[in-house]
Structure formats: C-alpha cells, structure tokens
Amino acid sequence: MRREPDFFGEQELSLVYVAKRLKEALRLEKLLTEAGLDYLVEPDKYSGGVIFRSERVGAFFYVAPEQDVAVKEVMQRGGFRPHEAI
User: Fold this and answer.
1) What's the whole-model pTM score?
2) Residue ranges per structural domain of the chain
C-alpha cells in the first residue's frame, strides 16, 4: 500500500524502481498494492538521453529494507526489473 514518509519514520529506505512514465508508475503501484506491500513514491530528478542528456522527473519507489526481497520478487513476476544499487 502506498504510504506517506512519516509511516517509515527515520528508517533508511531502499530504492527499488524509477518509473519514467506515468503509465509505468501506475502499473507498479497497482502491483504492489495488490500484493499488500508498503511502499513510498516520490518524484525526483534523473538524467536521461544518450546523445542529448537532459534532466527529467520520474517516480522513485522506495521500500523498507525488510521488504526489499519480497518487493523485488513481486516486481520481477510482474515484468519489472528492480533497481540495483551500484
């Protein structure tokens, strides 16, 4: 279920996905909600483009560390490729 930042308190959250299109973000929200998983979505900037780099806004999905594995499994079954930390 979509939660507000105060739901997670001072916890350090894990970035699991950056949706670049609204349709993609809505599909992931539906998937996570139906699975009963708590997540936070916030707009943020990312760099995109190959030849002409530009700054764009996407929907950044975060989860509590203890739900990281479960969320990534649900995402993969739903056809999403979870964000991997570098």
Assistant:
1) 0.89
2) 5-77
In order of 6, 21, 22, 64, the CA distances from 13 in angstroms are 12, 22, 22, 5
Q: Are 85 and 41 in contact (CB under 8 A)?
A: no
What are the b/e assignments for 22-37, b being 16+ CB within 10 Å?
A: eeebeebbebbeebeb
Residue 4: Cβ within 10 Å count: 7
- Please give the Cα distance from 72 to 65 (Å, whole number): 11
Residue range 5-77, CATH number? 3.30.70
Over the stretch 62-84, which tens digit does the pLDDT of each residue have? 999 999 999 999 999 999 999 87
